[in-house]
Amino acid sequence: MIDNTYKWYPIYTRSRAEKKTQEALSEKNISTYLPLIKVEKQWSDRKKVILEPLLKSYLFIYISAKEFTEVLMTYGVSRFIYFSGSIVSIPTKQIEDLKLLLSDGSDLEINEMEVMPGEKVIIKTGPFKGILAELVYLKHNQKIVLRLENLGYTIAINTSMANIERL
Questions:
Q1: Which of 18, 64, 73, 122 sits in a 20 to 30 Å window from 115, CA-based?
Q2: Contact indicator for 61, 11 with CB cutoff of 8 Å
Q3: The domain 7-103 belongs to what CATH superfamily?
Q4: Has this prediction a pTM greater than 0.90?
């Protein structure tokens, strides 16, 4: 028996195809949600603020099980997300919370890299670019305390996890 109740499902899209996939699904009258954040991009000649997906290659759709095949036959859709052999659904409350979180304009950042205290890192951007250091600890993923080996000092840097790279 097919479940006809509508639920939110996360789908995995082709790389960098989240917006086009959302457009293709909307043309099929399928409700979608693509959480976007403002990101400042630096080119050699200018800076520009653009909207990027909060979760790379993920898109949320609101469908019933009878529409699974239609979704999979849509441009840009790679697959549904599975957990323990079943397609994952997301509670509506979590989608509403995500929308609320993004609506107030807060600076949000998702970072998949997990750096543990004691690991060696290199700073990728900013005035400390290229400096090798040891991560001492993180404070709210914003303040990174690094030990700079060459100087023998511990320095607290207000930066983002996106600005460091594990060695």
A1: 18
A2: yes
A3: NusG, N-terminal domain (3.30.70.940)
A4: no
Among candidates 97, 99, 81, which has minimal Cα distance to 32?
A: 99
Exposure string (b/e) for 12-50, b if CB count within 10 Å is 16 or more? ebeeebbbebbebbeeeebebbbbebeeeeeeeeeeeee
Q: What is the number of alpha carbons within 13 Å of residue 50 lying toward its C-beta?
A: 9
d(CA 7, CA 60): 10
CATH of domain 120-166: 2.30.30
**Overall size of the chain counted in residues:** 167
Number of alpha carbons in the 13 Å side-chain half-sphere of residue 34:
22
Per-residue pLDDT of the chain in tens (167 residues, 90 and over written 9): 567 899 999 999 999 999 999 999 999 999 999 999 888 888 889 889 888 998 889 999 999 999 999 999 999 999 999 888 999 898 898 888 788 777 766 566 565 666 777 788 887 776 667 777 777 777 665 566 666 554 445 666 666 777 788 88
**Domain regions of the chain by residue span:** 7-103, 120-166
